[in-house]
Write a structure and sequence with these properties.
GO terms for molecular function: nucleoside diphosphate kinase activity. By secondary structure, the chain is of the alpha+beta class. The chain has helices at about 1-10, 15-25, 45-55, 100-120, 165-170, 175-185, 200-205, 215-220, 240-250, 255-260, 265-270, 285-295, 330-340, and strands at about 10-15, 30-35, 60-65, 85-90, 90-100, 140-145, 150-155, 160-165, 185-195, 225-235, 280, 300, 315, 320.
């Protein structure tokens, strides 16, 4: 209960124009997490905000969250595909950070806080900006009505896939490192949601593996603690997002990954099956199914290219027909079983 109170006190929820004006009048620097109603505030950055608050104190550093649909002033941020952090000082916008990029957020907080201290102490001129990046072309999500239904459907014009940072990686504190590597590899993180899966969800999610001996162990593991669910798109390169993500993950078995693709995520953060740190959709059809199950409000783009074939072969980092999920020293049947492990 004490932890919950701490989080509420840390980040003020701004839901009305009156509260917005009150927030702008705060002395010092205020960081506002502008979020969409369908995904909620960005939970992964709360630990960073707590750390910064403890380090610098509450006098000149404030944190707030605001749903874009609730405030007219945030109208141009509605339907955005990633969290947006607005930095205000003296009632003016001084910086913007897009995406849950913890290192960049921390760097920007420190820089803007020091700049505001100089403004307050020395009377220096405050550097005010306009968010020039906002334009209709930048919006990668659109809200559409579903045959007259009142519920909004969130859709992406980019080709997307599902990524999961599994409980074993989360519990060992590797989430931020993995997210940084994903971004460095040229992926756009459209959504990053921390969630503890239910047994019913995971049984449905892995229903195609229900007959395997490892099924119960896999379901138990995926429900054992919080995971991070990410929707990924590509920001650069010609390789489609599904194949690119599977290549970055590496072979499913961490032992094989360390031998064949030592720079892959599973080689670096996995230990043994099924504790292989990350999950990825097998192909575009699988991505549609998984996203529909875990993000019911997300409308998958019809423009996504086909990636790996529907069989048990895919193109890995070392060339075509490389088995991504099976060790070399087992027979073909064992390969097929290992291949299905994601």
């Amino acid at each position: 209960m004490g932890s919950k109170k701490k989080e509420i006190a840390l980040q003020v929820n701004v839901s009305t124009q009156e509260l917005w004006e009150e927030m702008l009048s705060s002395k010092g620097l205020t960081v506002v997490d502008v979020y969409q109603g369908w995904c909620g505030p960005c939970k992964p950055v709360v630990s960073l905000f707590q750390k910064m608050r403890v380090e610098v104190g509450p006098d000149l550093l404030h944190f707030a969250s605001a749903e874009a649909d609730c405030l007219d002033v945030l109208e141009r941020y509605r339907g955005k595909c990633e969290p947006t952090f607005l930095f205000y000082a003296g009632g003016e916008l001084v910086a913007v950070v897009r995406g849950a990029n913890a290192p960049l957020l921390e760097k920007t907080i420190r820089e803007q806080l020091e700049a505001e201290k100089r403004v307050l102490a020395e009377g220096r001129e405050r550097r005010v900006i306009k968010d020039e990046a906002l334009s209709d072309e930048d919006e990668c999500f659109s809200h559409e009505k579903n045959n007259g239904d009142d519920e909004d459907l969130v859709s992406s014009e980019k080709a997307c896939t599902l990524a999961i940072i599994k409980p074993d990686a989360v519990v060992h504190g590797k989430t931020d490192e993995i997210i940084m590597k994903i971004q460095e590899a040229g992926f756009d993180i459209l959504t990053n949601e921390e969630r503890t899966m239910t047994e019913a969800e995971m049984r449905l999610f892995y229903q195609h593996r229900a007959g395997e001996d490892t099924f119960e162990k896999l379901v138990h593991h995926m429900c054992s603690g919080p995971s991070h669910l990410l929707i990924l798109a590509r920001t650069e390169g010609t390789e489609d997002v599904v194949t690119a993500w599977r290549t970055l993950m590496g072979p499913c078995d961490p032992h094989v990954a360390r031998r064949e693709q030592p720079d892959s995520l599973r080689a670096q953060y996995g230990t043994e099956m099924p504790f292989n740190a990350v999950h990825g959709s097998w192909d575009s059809e699988d991505a549609r199914r998984e996203l529909a199950l875990l993000f019911p409000g997300f409308q998958f783009s019809d423009q996504i290219p086909e990636s790996a074939p529907l069989g048990h072969e895919a193109e890995g980092a070392e060339g075509p027909n490389k088995m991504l999920c099976s060790p070399e020293d087992v027979d073909e049947a064992a390969r097929d079983q290992g291949e299905a492990t994601s």
